[in-house]
Records
---
Amino acid sequence: MSRERSSRVRGLTLVVAFCFQWLLFPGFVFSDSDELEEIRNAIKAKGARWHADETSLSKLSEKEKKMRLGLRDSEDLSMEYLSGEETAPIPLVTLAPPTLDWRNVNGISYVSPVKNQGSCGSCWAFATTAGLESQYMIAMSGMPVDLSEQILVSCPNGGGTCSGGSSATASNFLRDVGLPLESCFRYTATNNDCSNACANWQENTYKISGWHRASSTTVTVDDIKNALYAYGPVVTTMYVYNDFFSYRSGVYSYVTGSYAGAHAVLTVGYDDEKQAFIVKNSWGAGWGEAGYFMIAYSEVGGTSWFGYSVLVYDGYGANPDPPPPPPPPACSYTLSSAGKNFKASGGSGSVSIYTQSECSWTASTDSSWILITSNGSGTGNGTVSYNVEPNTGAARSAVLTIGGQTYTVTQNGAPRSIKKK
Amino acid sequence: MFLQKALLPFLFVALSFSTSPSFGTETVIVNKTFHGREIKIRVGGLIRIDLEELGSAGYVWEIQDLDKDHFDVVDVRTEGPPPSGDVTGKPIVKTWLIRAKKAGKAELKLLYHRPWESEKEAIERFFIRVRIL
């Protein structure tokens, strides 16, 4: 009886203590310690496969407690999810290779360089823009392109602001409006104003042809792999916890720390042997592995809930066509000398031509006594060689035309024979 | 009867944690608008600091050079993950609960930066002067 009463008291104690906690911190729960040593210990204890680096945060002695509350209701589901605007789901791919890295497919990268979102909540803009850049690069055999994230942050219906945004809304914008080049509206890490973009930017934009979700239900590891293999890099969301800031290398999996925010990234590959995805972040190249991280398959549906939303881009939108490449620079040609004189006995000579590496040229002559012996044409710098035949007559001259420039060859006349009377 | 006996002590403790300094333990709630200001608190009282941070961009607030003679960090916490959906990049509120240990004058300083970057790269700083009575 006494034990039963004691148990009831303990139960009530917990209930009241819990309520008391909420008196001071409504909406919060307490979290665990987050010191570097504890992260490292947690990595060891949990058999995680990543390396944590020292940070100024991790040097603190303060206690941070882990927050594990997950209120996952449906109120924040995007309208796009419900409206069915996206295209049909991908077909199942059963022959996906054991590894795939869009940064290196037969020696070609289809992923643009790592960028830095700064102190602006624009991860959604960086992830979606990076997805479009990859689709363009895939369509254009790896030709790089740098598009403007700032358009999404600043312009109407772009998807959000520096206080967060929707990847789905941004993807609709990439499909329907598209993005101009970065040079049109450079990133400022502020909300900025759309009017500061270059004039008539809507007339020359890059687009995706469409997008869809990797799965209409809960996303699985295979859903993400199939999408990567069939379509290219995919826009992925995840929860960031404090241990993630200390990630330096290896395969990340949550070990400790409190919730820090919902984040959007671009998944660019996977490795079955390491049981991990390869992911491009937008925190600059100074974080993680040159701006990238690997995350364990087990985090799909795990604490960091990697892939709770995965958007797949169908391809590069060819309408309108991509802007034409810039015209080649005008070519200029210079010869190493203006000409050369030869004795009547003839001989050989050469002249160098200097021009831009992409500029072509030809060498020709209207003379029958000069023979071009090598490099009658070329591209960029080059040297033209020629022979001059012996001259039995009077002095003569001829012209070599090389890259439109004139090179004059003169030759002495044959010596006169003096007859004695 | 049992409920009264069990709950009364807790109700008393809960009330004592109100912001009124007339009770045993006071809690002073501080936010960004208090930057540079002075607050007064009794020994044993709690300072709750609420600051918004953008963890999804890698930026966090952290206490700098904690004066351990005067303060104890009782707890640090953040709000929970949002519901599922496509919205990312929203700031969250981080909350510190700090106990005043000893009478005197002290400062609480925090800086806002990316943990893997140097403190010099901090983009914002916050401090309050605390008079502990």
Note: The two ends of chain B are 40 Å apart (CA to CA).
---
Amino acid sequence: MDIKVALVGNPNTGKSTLFNRLTGLNQKIGNFPGITVDKKTGFTRLDATRGAEIIDLPGTYSLYPKSKDESIVFQVLADKKNNSHPDVIVLVADASNLKRNMLLYSQVADLGIPMVLALNMVDLSAKQGIEVDVDKLAEKLGIQVVPISARNNTGIDQLKQAVANTNKIATQNLEVDVNFLAPEAINAIKRHINADNDYYALQVLHQHEHLTFFTDQQQVEIEEIEQSHGFESAKVQAAETIARYKHLSTILSDVITDKGTAKKFSFSDKLDGILTHKVWGLAIFLLILFIIFNAIFAWSSYPMDLIESTFGWITAYGHEHLPAGMLTDLLLDGVIAGLGGIFVFIPQIAILFAFISILEDTGYMARVTFMMDKIMSKVGLNGKSVVPMIGGLACAVPSIMAARNIENWKDRMITIMVTPLISCSARLPVYILIISLIVPQETVFGIFSKQGLALMIMYLVGVIAAVAVAWVMKFIIKTKERSYFIMELPIYRMPRWKNVLYTMYEKSKTFVFEAGKVIIAISIILWVMASFGPGNRFEKIDQKYAAALADTARNTTHIETLVATEKLENSYVGILGHFIEPAIRPLGYDWKIGIGLITSFAAREAFVGTMATIYSVDGGDEDSVTIRERMAASVNSKTGLPVYTFATGISLMLFYAFAMQCMSTVAIVYRETKGWKWPVIQLVYMTAMAYVAALVAYQLLK
Amino acid sequence: MKLSHLKVGETGTIVAFTDLDMSVKLMEMGCLPGEVVEVERFAPLGDPMAIRVAGYQLCLRKSEADVIIIQ
């Protein structure tokens, strides 16, 4: 039978690299039941007969969690009934910084689960002049210790062998007998929950509130024991940490020999001197941002065009060769179009995550956080919010996924909530169309194009709004988690290209499968609403134009467009457009713009296409000159005044700048926050903000 | 003296903490009483700061360094 193996270790110890080495592409991401933390599992062969399920637990410095992700580690290790509870723990430790890494070992070991210690980066530590006497360490700990280098793929087979050889009963020596820290309380808990492990009982005293496997009744009883014995969590934890480090000092004193302390950090230090320099550091950071932004914007356009034209071709080919009818239409215009809408994001997601993964792997990301934390923390964000917010200029979807790197829950939520306010590339066609309608093609001081300036102002509006909302949310969102910025700055290293590829693949796959479900569903709903109308309205339109269409001598393209337009007006979406007209009239919009707003919920780009259909022009972006002319010429049927005045244009652009009109973003926020609460809040606040901004702008300018 | 008052390149030995909750997190990261810390650099805007402790580089906000008393 396969055994379950959990990888446990500090962040930056190469745990994920080891996980990828062991499992290859044979891995999947699921959820820990009831908790919003990703669970990475994979499979590996230990030897000819036995296999192992590998579970990659979140990196942590101790069993006392600082974030939600970290809390899963004790949860899984403590609960024997948890289906991720391991038979064997592989504790991954960085050999070049063994003492701090061994604190976690010492805690985990005392839980009494069979263990193997994987000493990673032995090559690196040897280079730094640190030698670890592996045999002596193994003897002192009472378990197998395997030196490995996950990066260079050495020692992996020995590690597998060690796991296969591990006893079912834990052999490690007790690190610290914690009973002395709070004897009465520990003994009371042991009796009460029928446990025999002192350290387990102590941990239960500390963090039972976060443990989901106790019943409410048990929680109350544990709390009573805690109260009646005057258990002081922080004090006991401090005493335990000191006791563990003291014990580790004696264990490690004749295991580690350090010969080269003097110069081992010189390279990293010199690099830090430049990369976090007051002037150069910021300049280099801006340059890197520019490269990333440019890559997401420019490089992705080729594969995106290819994906779009492929899906366009499939749709056209399908319409030609499949029997005409409702099912075909649903399949092609609903499902296939929806799929196209998902796949088109893959290039941007893959490129953004390639960069993020390189920046993290090299250790540069930690420095970005270090440099930006001061500014970002002022408005309720975190140094780590910089990357998602910059990525938001291209597309909010991969950027919101990137916010996962932010450990602090509140900082992460605020980042997710404000990232869609940054003007993404989908708003660009809308801005361009409207600016060309309302801003004259003139220059200021003979050099700056007024239209270009208008576009830049729209981007600035987005950034300012994001910062302002973040600042407001800082006061609204409550959390018990204290915001810490105690963070390791890992030494600089070369990126592991295989990890980069894994990340690109994994993030794209997650997006397609998770967000995809919701996008397909909404696409189908939109298609149905745009393709059907109540009663026999559609048949009447068909009858009206039947004669003209039957006339083969005439070019029927124009008439077909007329039919499409009239049908759209009479479809459920069109009726909805008329229905919401009273609500949007104060913003300066008519029902046609209303339809544009509704279809734009699927994706903002849909605005141009919808306007094209409504204004009876074939095609999308390519024909925007003609759409523009028709839009510019259109007049309000009631007042006889032009629809697209300066006031309406500004109002419409502000609406697009703030409104959450992107179902992919809604879907990804749902996926990232694992519930509907946050996407709904986001949808409501952004729409409200868009409405108010558009209303004020129109009423002031009209 | 507080750790946050040290200048770049200066070293000190941790003697105590003024905040119990924060001390627990700091000790987990290797900032134990008796350890020698060296200030490596400050971020471009003066906060946070990077220190060398227990053989690696740790960064923390000045407000967090305030709770560390050194000698």
Note: The helical segments of chain B are 20-28, 62-65.
---
Amino acid sequence: MRFAYPGGVEVYPEPGLTLTLGSGVTALVGENGAGKTTLTKLLIGLLRPSAGSVTVAGLEVAKITVAAMARTVGYSFQNPDDQLFERTVQAEVSFGPRVLRRSAEGIERGVAWALRACGLEGKEDVHPHDLGLSERKWVAIASALAGEPAVVVLDEPTLGQDYPSRERLRSLVRELDDRGRSVLVVTHDMDFVGEACPTAVVLSHGRVRYSGPTSKAFADHSVIQEAGLEPPHVDSLARMLGLSECVSEADVLSAWRR
Amino acid sequence: MAGGLSLYAEGKSLLHRAHPLTKGALTLSAIAIAFIAPSIGWVLGIGVILLVLVTAAGVLRRLLAVAAAILLPITLLLLAVQGFANANNRTVAFALGPIVYYREGLAIAALAALRIACLVCATFLFSFTTRPADISEALMQRGLSTRMGYVVQSALQIIPQTLDMAGRIQDAQRARGLETEGSLPRRARAYLPLMLPLVLSSLVATQERAMALEVRGFGLPVKRVARFEFADSPLQRVLRWVLIGAVPAAIAARLAGWR
Amino acid sequence: MGPDRGGARGDRRPPRGVALSSTSLVFENVSYAYEEAAREAVSDLSLSIAVGEWVGVTGPTNAGKSTLCLLAMGLAPHFFGGRLKGRVVVLEKDSRELSVIQRSAEVGLLFQNPFTQISGARERVDDEVGFGPECHGVSRLEVAARVEEAMALVGISQLAARHPMDLSGGQLQRLALAGLLAMRPKLLLLDEPTSQLDPAGTAAIFDVLAGLHASGITIVMVEHRLETLCELCPRVVAMVAGRIIADGPPDDVFNREAVQLRVGSPVFTRLAREAGLSPPWPVRLRDATAVFGRRLA
């Protein structure tokens, strides 16, 4: 697949991007300008490729409208203010399932679950703009989840989040995985990638530099450096101690105990 | 993201180098006199002068492109309606099937169309040869307050910014299931849920921007330092007075019986 | 200037007899509530920051960290209204006596959202950077010099002729920082300055800040990434629900249970605790390597 913005800036140069993402939780990492957000927009049809095709859950994206894709893919934007437009948190989160014409129970179930998973219980009647930036991000994430889509795309969910929020994000991602959803997390936060995403795709200058288990992603530091990234803190510690590859705290502890 | 709204075309012609206020005076004067002058001959004369200036500035091709898009439909509409329905119609010019066109109506339509053409020409001549930053700078050097100057400067970026915001909000709504593609009524309906969030987001953005401006010291009662100098000359100063003065002179002439 | 172990709130008034000109920012029992807000955003805050310090501020959401910055800048209460109790003294001047624009020559505030920080009145990046100094009536030559210096410092010199609206979020944040630096502030307040930047961009900004710190500028930085905070800031203030719960060197602050529970701790600290090592636990990579390494040996 190839794509170029109207200004002629080609995001994915010849011979184009070929990538297959499986189920489970995948992290999409790369420096700014590598093409991560472009890729996610292509996934939901907000952008159309100039060559090649994009298929999600068996549906060819070019053949259906963006709104129709929303049944299958829940997308949470990087800047929540691009996404929020209702007057209360409740209205915002239930917008998706309402527009998708889910049944009343389906809407209630989806919204209740999304609010709980995102820590927004008790804030249903608050105006989103009265919340801080990090809470607005959670509202955006909840909005993407309420429709119970099969695929969830989170664009930079860890930005500006405090430690308890990052923990909540980890459990959310795990819960989505348990429920059999495919999750794609676009992020810079390598610690989060190590802790919560078993699969990683490294994008650099519009090319896929690595695609596979996260545990092996940091084995070759040159790939990471060339992509403008840094390894997780636990990886740095493990290297300095001479321990084998570690990407999560659990890894370090088990390596340490041996 | 789009840049600001600007039609400015790089160039080194006399017009490009002229003081913005001179060009402003020229534009306003030309438009006013085109509408005051009594007959086609005079208006045509102004139009020709403008075209000469446009060519000298090197922007003829650009002007023809935009002018054609704007003027052609207006001219045809005027000719079609006035030629057929004007109250003073007496002399038949020609007939298109059952519809009869009269000379008087056509003449009036032609005059109106020419006046509008002069307006378009003068406005685009100004826009093509003047940087937006220069307009506000020139006005502020002449005493416009910094606050008003800011309003002028930011006005040009407001529209692309708002369009940008509208696009992003609509993308977000589409990504949540709001159908915007398809039949015309459906596409039109999709604009309704856009309005409230657009206004709200604009208000919030405005508040944040106001805070950021204060943090940078906007509004301090300091003597303004000119950002750049404009080439000016006694000739241009005289020219500005002549151009502006021509307007009341033309009005007086009309009142005195200029035909 | 050394840390005064005066209890959990870290009461930081300078001792009698010391000239106040050595302080950059002082909060004396400050409480503030926004207009129409039920609860206070900050309560009974007392904090003293000396000139040249680099202080990290952290805490969960709604801890009052951003409010702290807004109070220091004067936007609270001058812009937002609200109820202010206590004294905020910035560079020796009481906050109530100075408006925000009067303070802008010496204090700079970088907001979280880069998109709304540009003036919207300039078509070139270099003109945008010069907006602040121009508002202060700085001469044309001086403005040009400062613009060049600021752009080089944050690494956007190559973007000088671009239209600000064409920049990405990360580039915009650097532009906003350059715009502040062009005013040569003595006190810099940064609300999560690298939130929009990728790791390379983040490292570049922190290098800039390190340089500014070395030249004597006081920096107050709100940051969620605790490992970064511990690495860079000699002093950390931990806030929860509008109050300061700890104030001191990072090694002290993150070894407190209250902080670990309510704010979190760097990954090294958690690892050391889980691995059963005895306190005090390390907060930095260097120290963690040493501590773990000793046990391996």
Note: Chain A has a mean pLDDT of 84.
---
Amino acid sequence: MKPPLAHRAAEWLSSAGRSVFRIGWPQTDKDRAAAMISSFFLHIHPARVSRHVLRPTYTFALGLISAILFGILSITGLALMLYYVPYPPEAYRSMKDLQFVVTFGMVLRNMHRWSAHAMVVIVFLHMCRVFWTGSYKPPREFNWVVGVLLFLLTLGLSFTGYLLPWDQLAFWAITVGTNIAAYAPVVGDQVKFLLLGGHMIGPMTLLRFYVLHCVILPAAMLMLISLHVWRVRKDGLSGALAQTGAVEEVAGVFPPSSKTYGLMSLSRRPRASVESRDPNDEVFAWPHLLYRELLVALAVLVVLHALSLIFMAPLEEIADPTRTPNPAKAPWYFLGLQELVHYSALIGGVIVPTLLVVALLALPYVDRGPAGAGRWFAPERRMSNTVFTLIAAVLVVLTVTGTLFRGPNWAWVWPWR
Amino acid sequence: MSRRQATRAVGVVILPLLVAAGGCRRTSPTPPGDAMLDAIRAEERVGGLSYGAGQGKHLFAQYCATCHGDEGRGDGQNASNLNPAPPDLTTSKNARDAAYLRRVITQGSAAAGRSALSPPWGRSLSAQQIDYLMAYCAAMTQSKR
Amino acid sequence: MKQTAPTSLHVAFAALGLAFLAIFSWVLFHEGVADWRTTQARFRRIEATVKNPHQLAAAASVGGLRQIWLPELDRVDRCGTCHLGIDDPSFAGAPQPFSSHPGTWLTTHPIDRFGCTPCHDGQGQATDYLNAAHQPQPFVTRPMRPLETIEANCGACHRAIDAPDAPRLDEGRALIVQSGCFSCHDIPGFDGLTFHGPALDSLGSKVRPEWLPGWLKNPKGYLERSKMGNFRLSNDEITVLQAFLLSQRAIPPLEGMTVDWKKADTANGRALFGELRCVSCHAVNGRGGTMGPELTRIGDKVRRDWLFSFLKDPHRVQPETAMLQYRLTDVQLRDLTAFLLEEYRSGDTGPEPPPVTYQDARAVMAGRGIFERRGCTSCHRLGAMKNTGRIGPSLAGIGDRNPDELAFGRGNVRRTADNYIFLKVLHPDALLQTSMMPTFDFAPIEAARIALALASIRKADLPVSYVRNRPMPPPFTPAGHFGELVTRYRCLSCHSVGGFGGTLSTVPLDRIGSQLKHDYISKYLLNPGAVRVSVEARMPFFHMLPDEATTIADYMTSVLLDDTLDRYDATFSEADVQRGQDLYTQLGCVGCHQLGTVGGYVGPVLSDVGDRLRPGWIAAWLANPERYKPGTLQPDYGLSAADARALTAYLSSLVDGGRPKSAEQGGRQ
């Protein structure tokens, strides 16, 4: 007797499914491990992870959130590109169309805007977390450098995106921002000219920023993110109790996955792998890690949707080069810089930011001692933590000052007045 | 995830929202006035006329008031020279009949079977102006009702 | 170690999942109940009550977003998405936003060519009430104008000085012309217009010295309708300015003047004052014309000798004055002067002080400095002093000025260009203490009218096809004897030719030779009587010489002609006259025109109209009065050619006090 039709259909579907997902919905630990390893998307995680990785208070999932935000930005950004004309004044008009006519246009734009701002914050916090837990210590020095570059790229993406609405806010924020760039000695004016495609913001600038924002920077970002995550995967997650020396491979309840460990054995062993190798302290990434990641993603989506419904992305009058607002402010994440520029153009606009970036890049090669890695505010690192926290706090204070406490002519105002 | 952690996570989400919401609320002071508009309204809203009726009032003064009087009471300067005398528009029943009124204004009183003393304005005034005049006449009869 | 997920995660997943579903359906819902969707649903319900099923079926396809694209004006107006009945008269009484557009504005301004925002302002791209900026909104530069100021947008296209369907704008522009704002400001649309205050060359011999400081301090204190503003001068400034002005005696009083003032007969002066029709241009005690200065307190101001010589030849002292030169004898002039100075003063002004001679050259120079700095030369001619040009800033594009750049002072006023212009016109020093602009003491409504007219001067250039312009009329400067007479009697102060000239008279002279008969013109010039009894401003009694009157009549009947009127065949039959007489009764002409002793006095007396008007003109006038005199009280009866001819025949026959003469005599002269 032939099997029933439904059964055959299910069979057919399942075989089709198996051509895509080699392993079906994993039922056994073996399958779970295999699912993680055989999937292109999932194999960025190891099959088993240390339990401490699941503790939200260790990483606060900041890296994950950054990645999710990048995903959201890519998707909403692609949708927005369908309606955007990178030429003034059509650019501004397409913003109005998004707001008033395009179905879901306003939500898309709001979400793109708030995700971009959130990403700057989250990436910054992520960097702070990495510092405070000493996670840039060998062997992760280079990944810290990649992280710093990613932070700069995030700022660049946000900055180039800022001009695209072509309203007063955009126009003057970019004017101020690019003027800060012009303070750089020798090359400042050339850099500004290169950025603007001229001496003033105009149609060429808009096109340049559009291409940077939609093609060049996202491509660079994607490559660096891949590198960043790959390094995390190879170096392992930091953060278990520090163990001295390499830990032996232990055959656990599952067969050691040949591939990953094979590669690992080819590579130089981490000098101070802080990942626990105690199989009793490990759980399967499927479902423990994935489940939590799913929850984080959901939470991010909920928050962003809510933000996008409650707060409208600003859109002021169309850009008018003859109407300078007072005060003209850079995008908020550069307002700390602008505040510094207010005191001294050379120091604030050039020396301090250059020193900061150089210091960040050089940090893991200077501070090489393994002490205190993998723990929040390790007492051994009190000195460096204090210095870093102070600098970060000053930056935050400057930014808040520039954002909220500065009025016309950059005079001090109380925001609640 | 312990309850404490969950609470903390919720706090992390809610707190910035609250801060943001608080930052966006502004106490609104007394809204600024529109000096020019107020000046025009102070002048033009005398008598509570609508814009159209106000325009009609000007037209009435120019074209009609010599006979019908500034207030439409039939007491214009030229009224004493007329036989029959112009009616008091504020009480006239006919003046409240919009179709009748329009006919008299555009085609003259002769078209309504009255004396020929009230001339036709349909060719001299634009349709817009006649609408204004009608509006003023309506306001005139209403205010005196 | 358990290898399955803990329950708390499931709970969190359920909660977050639900939250996500909720918020996502909120997003969907939000889009589904967009302002315009619900509005359109409401419209369908109203439409069903207004239209019959056939019309409904035809209208069924209309829905969704509706927009008007105006490529030339660079706008997209989506107002029609909600204002669905705007161009459909059947929604005349429907509630907003569905009501059809009032008036006939959409006939004169088709909606697919003009859209909505060019007239109304607001954000045309928006599809909801708030963002369309029906009320002022942040970041919307031009929110919708209330009806009270909407005429400022008429002026953007209608650049001719008069815009008939925009009375407020008209009023504002008239005020600008009267007040001479363009003397100090460059105002687009008012180019070529000139404004003259009196020349000051002989001020030292013109005015009594004690009068000047009060005038400089506050011109309105002497002359309520003074066109000169209050320059808010300090007492020191007034002292030196006075020294400078009173030392101006470039033009001496007429020489060889032998007037025996003791014999002056003020009663004769009073009679002359009435006869000359001075009040057509000058007001006394609040009544009279506004072209010349009010004379109510002239005795406080001017010197006797100066007034005498001015009345004798106004143009010698004031070449730009609108005042005509009467042909009066010295005795008449003496009596008139004596009457004016005695009758019109605030009290016994005492004997005339002798002219002051200023020795303090420093004070005179300081006064000259102030004179130049405050731009007095913009309005007043003074000997060799050059007109320094327009001292005030250009008002080009003032309607689009960025409010952020304007000093608003401390008042709690919405920052708009409108309000700024208004406040500035009203009290220039309230906005800027150091403002050079004088205070003109406009009433708030006058300031608002002027502000409205100025707000219509926009920065952006509209496409030519939208602009309704009117070029400045070319000047009319006839030569020869007639030209001299036109200059002497200042015909163009009141009358216009080809649009050039004054507007006090309702009779332009373009075709006057085809309107009036030769004999009537010369007779009328010698002794102008009232044509329309009810009109107060009348032609002055020039005391013209007979051959001067003939010269003018000759010129008019040979040059100022309209051939189309002259070609009229003026041989009428007796039947025409009879029919015309019947028509005269039928049409109710008697309501406004006097014939003999019967009739109203709204229009001209017709008793001897046959002596006065040429038949071609009568016929043309009756056929289309609006063409010749927009806004006239003569109604357009829509007469047929035969009826017009009959009426013309009848009117032409009325000569000599209303007695019809025979048709044969009524022919062309």
Note: DSSP finds 15 helices and two strands in chain A.
